[in-house]
Amino acid sequence: MSKILVVYYSYSDTTKSLAEDIAIITDGDIREIIPENPYSFTYNGATKEVRNEIERGYCPKLISGNESIDDYEYIFVGTPNWFKSFAPPILSFLRSVDLYGKKVIPFCTHGGGGFGQIEVNISKECPNSKILSGFQATSDFDDKKVKDWIDKIMEEII
Q1: DSSP summary character for residue 24
Q2: CATH of 4-157, one of 3.30.70.20, 3.40.50.150, 3.40.50.360, 3.80.10.10
Q3: How far is residue 109's CA from residue 133's CA, in Å, rounded to a whole number?
Q4: Spans of the chain, pLDDT less than 50
């Protein structure tokens, strides 16, 4: 198996698209995080659910994505920026796997909010991991910028 795992949660496939690019560029394995109960298909319904879960620190049950990561050294973690933080399924993933000694590389997609507190919040959840430089993008992300970021990350990895 590859030493690189790209794990992500995506609501509208924007984060999925970025995760797929990262997996191709790094030749890493890819894994989607899927919560047991999907979020509402309406934007307003989903935002109400998400805001409530984030405020409570809720960890939704996952049906996929939290399998063992023992074979991986580098874990790219992707999420949409929801209310300046990562999506609750990411919290479930971070709390359900052993990230001790792993190199964690955050990435996010957003509608204008950048990383918000995502990198800080991932660092808090991964105190025994090394957090590498992250990447944030809007839905019209530039593949060249993704490749340039990956090249810098790969220099750190090698």
Answers
A1: H
A2: 3.40.50.360
A3: 15
A4: 1
